Amino acid sequence: MDTIELIQVNKENLDDQGCYCLRSKPNSTGYINKNKWLTGRLNEGLKYIKLMENNKPAGFIEYTPIEYSSRVVYGENYLVIHCLWVNITGKGYASKLIQTCIQDAKEQKKDGVIVVTNPDTSWTPSKDIFIKNNFVEVDTAPYGFELLVYKFGHSPDPYFPNDWEERLQPFENLTILRTQQCPFVDIATENMIKGANQLGIRAEIIDIQSREELLRLSPTPYGIYGVIYKSKFISFHRLTVHSAMKRLKELI
């Protein structure tokens, strides 16, 4: 019989446990930046819970109060799931992690739990598992984003802003807006810059420092990574160098 354990990462065990993603490359810039980011977020109520099967990582969930979330969504008194991932399927581990978050929200007397999904990338959780766990879709945004919520009562639904096109207009130069919430942001940034350099395009990086700045500047609900060039949206997730060049060439 498999031994299942949920381990909550905290400041005391962070060095030993670390984050789930990129754990095979603990010396990489992305992994180091993610752990530094976690250190600053844990005192804001962020929870990072790893599911272990027979003492080996099998999945994780990361969630936080909406007022500290890295997702561009409005609402009050919700928890927001940033990430959910399992590498062992068919055993109910994803649902177990989701239900852990829901129970925590109840204990904190929150109004519910929010998640942002997108069918076009693995950088966001899958919508289907949340529908299976009784979440409902309440809003959508450009580029395939969906807003799902599990509510405990009759509180107002969370919602996306609706000024996505206007957010692109100030950025004529190639601009990368990012936070360190995801360890793959560093790789995504590096690939975009390499592609841009081969086309003679200089990239500017904006490291978002606060939720207020995130809500104001992010070109998508995803929040942690966005690329804009000539006031056109390029990507919210990692591209290969070749793909980055292809998308930039279309605007030259």
What is the name of the CATH architecture of the largest domain?
3-Layer(aba) Sandwich
Average pLDDT reading: 94
Number of strands: 11
Large-scale geometry? globular
Number of helical segments with 4 or more residues: 8
Annotated CATH topology of the largest domain: Aminopeptidase
Give, in spatial order, the strands making up the sheet with the most strands: 1-2-3-4-5-7-6
Main β-sheet, in a few words?
A: 7 strands, mixed
Radius of gyration: 18 Å
Separation of termini? 58 Å
Domain module count: 2
Kindly state the percentage of residues in helix: 25-40%
Strand content: 25-35%
CATH superfamily placement of the largest domain: Gcn5-related N-acetyltransferase (GNAT)
Pfam family, one: Acetyltransf_1
Protein name: GNAT family N-acetyltransferase
Organism: Heyndrickxia sporothermodurans
Domain N-acetyltransferase: 1-170
Commentary on this structure:
Helix content is 29%, strand content 27%. It has 252 residues and is α+β, with helices and mostly antiparallel strands. Strand 2 and strand 3 form a beta hairpin. The mean pLDDT is 94. It is built from 8 helices and 11 strands. It starts with a strand and ends with a helix. It is globular, with a radius of gyration of 18 Å. It folds into 2 domains: 4-151, Gcn5-related N-acetyltransferase (GNAT) (Aminopeptidase, 3-Layer(aba) Sandwich); 164-249, Glutaredoxin. The strands form 2 sheets. The protein has a 7-stranded mixed sheet with strand order 1-2-3-4-5-7-6. Strands 9-8-10-11 form a 4-stranded mixed sheet, with helices on one face. Helix 6 crosses helix 8 (241-249). GO terms for molecular function: acyltransferase activity, transferring groups other than amino-acyl groups. InterPro entries: Acyl_CoA_acyltransferase, GNAT_dom. Residues 1-170 form the N-acetyltransferase domain.
